[in-house]
Amino acid sequence: MGPSGSGKSTLMNIIGLLDKPDEGFVSFNDENISELSLNQQTNFRRENIGFIFQFYNLVGNLTVRENILSGSYLTKNPLDSKEIMDDLALTEHADKFPYQLSGGQQQRCAIGRALAKNPKLLLCDEPTGALDYNSAKDVLCLLEKINRRYNTTILIISHNTAIGDMSHKMIRLRDGYIEDFKVNQDLLSASEIEW
Question: How many CA atoms lie within 13 A of 152 on its CB side?
Fold first, then answer.
């Protein structure tokens, strides 16, 4: 969490090996991944990290099924795309193109593409920022389900402070520094949070 310009996206890009830190390092399962070569970083991202972007970044001339399958091709151990589409309530939209979908459906497709890789870490940059309230709640419930079902660690960057109530840990940034760190002892489910 944090205001615009606080360093949230920069931190996510560093964790996702898209940017290098000015100092310090990134550790993943006790391994310093900051010093990997570019090829090693690419392979590490491919095998371990999924990205969900605020504005979906779907491939416009691919169907829902094809967008999701594109994530499967990036890893050795993909999840079943049919199961993912079922979980995301996208099966009936499998042959539609992104322009034929609502914002919530497009975001679910983007989640499916990232999830198809079977990542250990899912990085979400404002996953509800472009959605209406009900679609945003649906996406948060879905992320919660992914965390439980697939044991996927999820890092969510958001301006929405209510998301902190469903998060195991919350970090608040200001001007590139950690302003507050909290372990949440009283977790609410995604369906319970209000904003």
Answer: 28
Burial of 17 (0-12, 13-18, 19+ CB in 10 A): buried
Strands 153-157 and 121-125, by their bridges, are parallel
How many angstroms separate the Cα of 187 from the Cα of each of 65, 94, 181?
34, 34, 15
CA distances to 8, 23, 173 from 14, rounded to whole Å, are 10, 11, 15
CA distance 106 to 34: 32
Q: Which of 32, 6, 38, 114 is nearest to 69 (CA)?
A: 114
Q: How far is CA 78 from the centre of its chain?
A: 16
23 Cβ contact partners less than 8 Å away, ≥ 6 residues apart: none
pLDDT in tens, 32-73: 998 899 999 999 998 899 998 877 889 999 999 999 999 888
Query: Collapsing DSSP states into helix, strand and coil, what is residue 182?
Result: strand
State the pTM of this model. 0.89
